[in-house]
Each structure stands twice: as structure tokens, then as C-alpha cells.
Design goal:
Two copies of one chain form a homodimer. With 133 residues, the first copy, chain A, is an all-alpha fold. Chain A has one domain: Orthogonal Bundle (Ribonuclease iii, N-terminal Endonuclease Domain, Chain A), CATH 1.10.1520. Helices cover 65% and strands 0% of the residues of chain A. Chain A is built from seven helices and no strands.
Chain lengths: 133, 133
């Protein structure tokens, strides 16, 4: 494998015991917010053939989290915004860990862009599979 | 070279005739905003050893643009926010074109993080050299 592709950002001390801890990490969610908006913008850029900068709707991520069977890992009273945060935390965690590349993430979103919820559901499902392995 | 690293996002139709056109592209700046905030967040994450999501101050980018001798490519009356936009447009353009990798960008920022203006000045100088080659 290429040393650059495989290069991980090693500065983070990962102390997550399980999926729930990743999903509930608000700091990871903030980094995830920057990452998800970037890959989403890249996907739109690919589709429209011109540079686009955009933010993913929190509702879209919350719905995707539920469809991907990940809502159950969060406390019952967690609001939709925090559900979106959870999705963002997991998506960037998978990239940081090298479980999925940025290119693959963008391709997956792009391929299902007709339905944003579906695109992020499939991304979360794929990521969950890989992170658990 | 690794096919993944070298893989470019080819959806964009690049019609830029010169550096000025890149710096003045507001759509590219929007995508650049998402990218720059992400790489900046990653640099902070590396330094502090925990996930951080942050936005780069527009003033920092405007000052870096001037120090990197790129201010002269913009009209005289362009405000500081648009100067920041110009820096963001060029930074993401370099990445999209494969002139600099995301990892290298983060490392360069991280290495000079004691002075944010200096960090982005060096990044812009390096990018300008490569884009012009």
C-alpha cells in the first residue's frame, strides 16, 4: 500500500471503548462537521462540474443515523442536532482510522446523491461494518 | 505513484487562464472555505492530541495573502473578507489539481502553528510555486 494513503493522523489519542463513545464524542463531532461539509461539498462539486461549498442539513444526518440502525446507541432524549453530530463523529472517525478514504467517501455520496438521506445511510452502514471489523 | 493518491477529482471544468482568475473565483472560495477549515481543524487536532473543529479567521488569511505577495493580483478595493476568500480558493485549487496533498498541507500548517499568519503564508508561497510550474 502507498505510504501516503495509509498515513494516519496519529496525534489523536483514541480511547473509545465502543461505537457509542464515538457517536457521543462532541469534540469528534466538531471535527466531523468540518469533514462532512467538505466531502459533501466535493460530492456536489463532482456532480455539478463546478466548485460548490455547502453544509449538510442536520436532519438529513439524523434520519440517516436512524436508517443505519445507529440511533439505538444514543440516549432516548438526544435531539436531532445531536443525532447529526453523532453521524459526523463516526464519519470522520472512520476516515481518521483509515477505514475509508476521502475519495471513497465522496464517491459513495456522489453515487447516491439523488437521495441525500439514502447516500448518508449507505455511508454510515459501510463505515459501521468496517469500524467494527 | 499510488493510483489513489494521484486520483484527482475530475468533475470540475478548469477554465482558469491565470492565478488571478483562481483567486477571484467566489465559487471556488466556497469550496475552499470548507477545505481550509477542515485542514486547519486537523492541524489543531494533531497539535492538541484531541479532535478539534475550528474556523480560520479571515484576517489571518488576508494577512497571509499579502505576505505571500498575492494581494497584488486582486483589485485594489477588495475587502479583507474577499482577500481571505482568495486564499481559500487557491489552497483548495492546489489540492484539487494534485499540486499538494491534504497530508502535506496539514503538516505544513502544523509545523508553523505558533504563528498562524506565518503558517498560511508559507503554505500559500509553496502552493504558488507549484501551481505556476
Amino acid at each position: 500500500m502507498c505510504p501516503v494513503c495509509q498515513e494516519k493522523f496519529t496525534g489523536i489519542r483514541y480511547n473509545y471503548q465502543n461505537l457509542r463513545e464515538i457517536l457521543m464524542d462532541k469534540k469528534l463531532a466538531k471535527l466531523g462537521d468540518a469533514y462532512v461539509n467538505f466531502v459533501y461539498s466535493l460530492a456536489l462539486t463532482e456532480i455539478y462540474g463546478e466548485p460548490i461549498g455547502a453544509r449538510v442539513n442536520s436532519d438529513v444526518l439524523a434520519k440517516a443515523l436512524k436508517k443505519a440502525q445507529l440511533r439505538k446507541f444514543l440516549p432516548v432524549r438526544v435531539d436531532r442536532h445531536s443525532q447529526g453530530d453523532a453521524a459526523e463523529a463516526l464519519i470522520v472517525y472512520a476516515w481518521l482510522q483509515g477505514a475509508i478514504s476521502l475519495q471513497e467517501t465522496v464517491k459513495l455520496i456522489t453515487a447516491h446523491m439523488g437521495n441525500h438521506v439514502e447516500a448518508f445511510t449507505l455511508l454510515l452502514e459501510e463505515i459501521t461494518r468496517r469500524v467494527r471489523e
